[in-house]
Amino acid sequence: MSKQFAVIGHPIEQSRSPELHHAFAQKMGIDLNYAKRLAPLDGFDASMQDFFAQGGLGMNVTVPFKEQAFNACTVLTERAKIAKAVNTLWMQNGQLHGDNTDGQGLVEAILALGWNLAQSRILIIGAGGATRGVIYPLVQAGAQKIVIANRTLARAEQLVADLKDAVPNTELSAVELHDLDGDFDLVINATSASLSGDALVLPETLQFKYAYEMAYGKASSFLDQAKARGVPTSEGFGMLVGQAIESFRIWHGVKPNLKDFL
Ligand code: ATR
C-alpha cells in the first residue's frame, strides 16, 4: 500500500493540497496517497488520532483546526511555538510532532518572485492567526522592521507584545489601520477582508515597492490599489504551494522546486 497522507479541515472540499502533494510526488518519484479528511467541528482529535492509528504518516491541518493541532502535539518546532498554530503533523518515536510551514511558504513565494527580504521594511495588515504565523519566518529571512496595522489596534499591540521577545533584533510595532503611513519595501494583506469581499483603503501617502495578498482567487481592493500604482503584486497561490513544499520536505526529506508548480 502507498504511504498515506491527508489534509484535515472543516470544510475540506476546497483544499488544493492533495493535487499539490500528488504533483510533487510524481515529480520526485515518490509513491503516496494524499486524501481529504473532513472532521466534525468537535471531532478533530479523534479523527486525527484515528488517521495515525491506521498507519498514516503525515497530515496537514487547515481551518479551523490549526490551534487544536498545536495543542495536541508533544513536540513542536520553534516556529510552530511562536505561531501557536500547527499545519503539519507527523509521528516520530511514538510522539506527535508539529510544525507550521505557512510562514516559510510565504517567504519562499516572495523570494521566487525575486523580491528582496534582506534588511527589508515590511508592513503587514491584519493581526489574526495569519499574521502571527508569518512574522518569525519573515524575520529569519532578513526583515529588519515589521509594522502590524490592524483595524482593532489592541489586537496588533497584543501580537507585538507576544512576539517581541522572539524577534529581539527586529523593530516590531503596531499601528491602527486608519493611521497607516510611511515607507515600506513590502506590504502584505493578511486580513480576511478579501475573503469576505470587504474593501481595504490604503492611504495615498503610504509608500511601498511590492504588494502581496495572502488570499487568492478573490477580488482584492488591496491588490487593485497596488496595481493602480504600478507596483509588482502577487496573490497567495505561491504561499499555498510554498507551505505544501515545506511540509513535503519535512515528510520526505526532498524539496520540490516551487517555480515548477506555479
Ligand atoms: P486569520 O486567522 O485568517 O488571520 P482572524 O484571526 O479572524 O483570521 O483575523 C482576521 C484579520 O482580518 C483581523 O486582523 C481583522 O481585523 P480585526 O482584528 O480588527 O477584526 C482583519 N479584518 C477582517 N475584515 C476586515 C476589514 N473589512 N477591514 C480591515 N480588517 C479586516
Automatic annotation (TrEMBL):
Pathway: Metabolic intermediate biosynthesis; chorismate biosynthesis; chorismate from D-erythrose 4-phosphate and phosphoenolpyruvate: step 4/7. Shikimate binds at residues 15-17, 62, 87, 102, 216, 243. Its EC number is 1.1.1.25. Residues 7-89 form the Shikimate dehydrogenase substrate binding N-terminal domain. Residues 236-259 form the SDH C-terminal domain. Pfam families: SDH_C, Shikimate_DH, Shikimate_dh_N. It comes from the Bacteria. Signal peptide: none annotated. It catalyses: shikimate + NADP(+) = 3-dehydroshikimate + NADPH + H(+). Residues 116-194 form the Quinate/shikimate 5-dehydrogenase/glutamyl-tRNA reductase domain. Keywords: Amino-acid biosynthesis, Aromatic amino acid biosynthesis, NADP, Oxidoreductase. The active site is at residue 66. The keyword Coiled coil does not apply. Gene3D superfamilies: Leucine Dehydrogenase, chain A, domain 1, NAD(P)-binding Rossmann-like Domain. GO terms for cellular component: cytosol. GO terms for biological process: amino acid biosynthetic process; aromatic amino acid family biosynthetic process; chorismate biosynthetic process; shikimate metabolic process. One of its GO terms (molecular function) is NADP binding. NADP(+) binds at residues 78, 126-130, 150-155, 214, 236. CDD domains: NAD_bind_Shikimate_DH. It is an enzyme of class 1 (oxidoreductase). Homodimer. Belongs to the shikimate dehydrogenase family. Involved in the biosynthesis of the chorismate, which leads to the biosynthesis of aromatic amino acids. Catalyzes the reversible NADPH linked reduction of 3-dehydroshikimate (DHSA) to yield shikimate (SA). This is Shikimate dehydrogenase (NADP(+)).
